[in-house]
Design a protein that fits this description.
The chain is built from ten helices and ten strands. It is an alpha/beta fold. It has a domain at 24-266: 3-Layer(aba) Sandwich (Glycerol-3-phosphate (1)-acyltransferase), CATH 3.40.1130. Strands 1, 2, 3, 4, 5, 8, 9 and 10 form an eight-stranded mixed sheet that branches. The chain has a two-stranded antiparallel ribbon with strand order 6-7.
Length: 351
């Protein structure tokens, strides 16, 4: 697999160019035909399982997503230990509809999605069959979605929440919306539910570290067209996706919902930075600590530090900056082409 980086502007997926497809047409065709055949076969099975209240409605989606990962060329590398407590609210970063397939292959979960997804053709049907929780983005109606999340958690269902509220180019983690953590107030038998931060990162293409310009071929954001994006993504080869489960926590461990949100954001950001840079997480943490110490001990003004070429002070920790990438990889904070997409499948905003 060789991409000419001199022509990267032509191949920029955020531009939906009619230029050359860097993937294989035959690979895309075969993979999509097999995927569609499997999906059409499984839809009635899942529908009947839901109607009859069978336990298959929870286990079948995980099997289905595992097969989809194999068919479409995604190798999932699990790190850390996932929570064994039920229910658990998994909190993850979000860059693509592919996240749902990847996380669904590891966890018997339902996803929290924006309400508009329910009306989408095909993907809306799949979301309903996964028993997704649809949350209204408008503030005066968002309480209904949070109530539904609480009811599902009280019933023992595990949920996946994407608190960024949108998707991005896969090179960084956007700020979390603390309002979406309201479901963490749910208690079961007098004990707060478990919340587990999860990082997901697209790291390698055919075994070669994936740089910041290739990663957006698998992230869905900006004004990308869904159909052409899927076709291009599944034709590129075999993609390694790292899913890192961080230590579980509860709301009781923090002074506020905002503090819980900040903690989860830091853990997820560190995990993404470690995966994208190919460096151990502890090394990333040391780099972050050193940068924070440098900011605190630097008595110069922001303008002076900026003029001298130093990194400007930020409002919070910068866990994705300063991590040197392994050969061929990119630093996780390097900006990729394009901008976040407002409302990809599975995402929800608190606007």
């Amino acid at each position: 697999m060789g991409l000419n980086m001199d022509s990267i502007d032509v191949l920029d997926p955020s531009r939906e160019s009619s230029g050359p497809n860097p993937g294989s047409f035959s690979r895309s065709l075969v993979r999509m035909l097999v995927y569609i055949t499997l999906t059409l076969a499984m839809i009635p099975v899942q529908y009947i399982a839901i109607r009859r209240g069978s336990s298959l409605q929870r286990s079948l989606p995980r099997w289905y997503h595992r097969q989809c990962c194999k068919i479409l060329g995604f190798r999932v590398e699990r790190r850390g230990r996932q929570s064994r407590m039920h229910p658990t609210l998994f909190v993850s970063n979000h860059s693509s509809y592919i996240d749902i397939m990847v996380l669904g292959s590891l966890l018997p979960v339902s996803f929290v999605a924006k309400s508009e997804v329910a009306s989408w053709p095909f993907f809306g049907w799949l979301a309903k069959l996964q028993r997704s929780v649809f949350v209204e983005r408008r503030r005066h109606k968002s309480g209904n979605g949070r109530d539904e999340m609480s009811l599902r958690l009280e019933a023992g269902d595990d949920l996946v929440l994407f608190p960024e509220g949108t998707s991005n180019d896969g090179n960084r983690v956007l700020p979390f919306k603390s309002a979406l953590f309201a479901a963490a107030n749910t208690e079961l038998d007098g004990h707060p539910i478990t919340v587990q931060p999860v990082s997901i990162a697209y790291t390698r293409l055919d075994g070669v570290p994936m740089g910041r310009y290739l990663r957006p071929f698998f992230a869905w954001y900006g004004d990308m067209l869904l159909a052409s994006h899927i076709w291009r993504a599944v034709g590129l080869g075999w993609v390694t996706v790292v899913v890192d489960f961080h230590p579980p926590v509860t709301l009781a461990d923090f002074s506020s919902r905002k503090a819980l949100s900040d903690h989860c954001h830091r853990q997820v950001s560190l995990g993404v930075a470690a995966a994208l840079s190919g460096r151990p997480r502890r090394q990333i943490e040391r780099l972050v600590a050193a940068r924070q110490t440098a900011r605190l001990t630097d008595a110069r003004s922001l303008e002076e530090r900026t003029a001298a070429g130093a990194m400007p002070a930020q409002a919070g920790p910068d866990p994705v900056a300063g991590a040197k990438a392994e050969p061929g990889a990119e630093s996780a904070d390097a900006p990729g082409p394009g901008s976040p997409k407002p409302g990809s499948p599975g995402s929800v905003s608190s606007e």
